[in-house]
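Give me the 3D structure for AMP-binding protein.
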Amino acid sequence: MTGTAATAPNPAPAPATEAIRSVRDRLIRLREHPVEAAAGFAWPAIGPAFNWGIDWFDAIARGNDAPALVIVEEDGSRTTRSFDEMATRSDQLGVWLRDVGVSKGDAVMLMLGNQVELWESMLALIKIGAVILPTTVAFGGDELQNRLERGRVRFVIAAADDTPKFDQVTLPFTGIRVQPSRHLSHEDARDGVRSDVSREGREWAVYEEAFEKEVGPLGHPGTAPGDPLLHYFTSGTTSKPKLVEHTQVSYPVGHLSTMYWLGLRPGDVHLAISSPGWAKHAWSCFFAPWIAEATIFVSNYTRFDPERMLTTLRTEGITSFCAPPTVWRMLIQSDLTAGEGCGVLRELVSAGEPLNPEVIGQVRRQWGIDIRDGYGQTEMTAIVANSPGQPIKDGSMGRPLPGCPVVLVDPLTGEHTDEGEICLELSGSRPLNLMTGYVADEERNAEATVGGRFHTGDLASRDADGYLTYIGRTDDVFKASDYKISPFELESVLIEHPAVVEAAIVPAPDDLRLAVPKAYIALAAGHAPDAATAESILLFAREALAPFQRVRRVEFFELPKTISGKIRRVELRQREERIAAGTETCDEYRDDRLRDRDRA
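Predicted structure for AMP-binding protein (600 residues):
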């Protein structure tokens, strides 16, 4: 294919670039003054034409030799790209993608792991105005068929090892295959692709061809701030995944709030543990670091090794580290002293699910650094967080971030309250960092925005200082003996027991109380799933919780999770219903035995 550069030079509208830079620099300057930062905050004023890849990334990247991306493999090999290299290579790829047929507004499925081609493709697709559908490499044929259809995908970019998964797909699309060029010569990669035809007779274009010739900067595609840019499927913890649409500004510019929460600034080296294909990857591994002009550091592994990660934090100059609660729980099971001496490590954050206070306390005692929790959804950027200069209240996820009109609303009355559903006010100006809506789902859009607010479906409480504490999903909170039970609150206590790595609380049907709290437990190494361990956990919970919160049953069980790592409590609730109906058995331990023993 013949690649040609656009004849018109990149106009790079200075007002948009400088507007973003001005807001960013103010947030960095006030990184330890959250009240002042929020009080005077206004989202950047973006003109009628805007493209984040050209108007922001290229503006900070041209001639910038600082590392934009560092990827370290399990064998120690690494790939490093400067900001300038990323700008140039994404131009080359963008020109070639246009020649392949990708046009502004076309939906492109991007199914790559943590490899340099993922970041090149994201930038190139942004620059040409395509709509990107990031997809995890863990999916197979049925899931891919569904997503291709719902996302109206016309093009697919996938790694060579994953292209056979598309043989089952019956929908038409143009495929672009990324060969593992780190292990093959350029010629071998091209020949391998050209000779490969799928069982469906589909040929895959050769990604590596994009870099055969030099090109000039891409011309501005004429994208507007409200043009669609990203389609993300939600993780589906309680229902069928929803398809979320973000624009050229809602994620790319909206992640100024995420940058503020992460505490990033120019020159930082940010390591985030996140899987491509999910919104969190765009949060911490793309937009927020590059808004800050920080280096994205990726540590690839087949199986997570806590000791190796601690060594990486100590030796690679990492200044900020973001990991999900599952990783933090694994780290505290290892020797945290191996992470001491990380002289430049400044920021620790957790996201994905609420982090239990016990984990925060253990890391604080060993490293002297607070893990700062934050909250957001696929539908938006970070909206609540413990920002860098804010005193930490264990168990709280912090206060609303600048530009985020967060309110708590009583689900029954719709009135403002100190304990209710987390919502964003839509009256006046719509928050810039909120999605456009759910694609082709007007019913869900209407439900989500009823009453002039965006409803997250999450419950929280607010204290006198404005700190929010997560309670749970509206679907997860339940009543036992007419008392409201927050699964997260009980789980936070259980995880303090040395035998418990993870816990999930769900209601178990009960003739007397209607429902009682039951704990599904993932055990720490060295602890047996037996009656003695169960009794120890039940006694621990009895002493730490109020009588109405008491955990009445325990079962040792592999917790079901979404492919992005979130616990699917809905599956556990359904299992409890089957157990109650007698269609399924379980091996659980009950506190009745403890009461009977106490009476004796």
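The chain has two domains: 14-462, 476-599. Let me know if you want a second pass.
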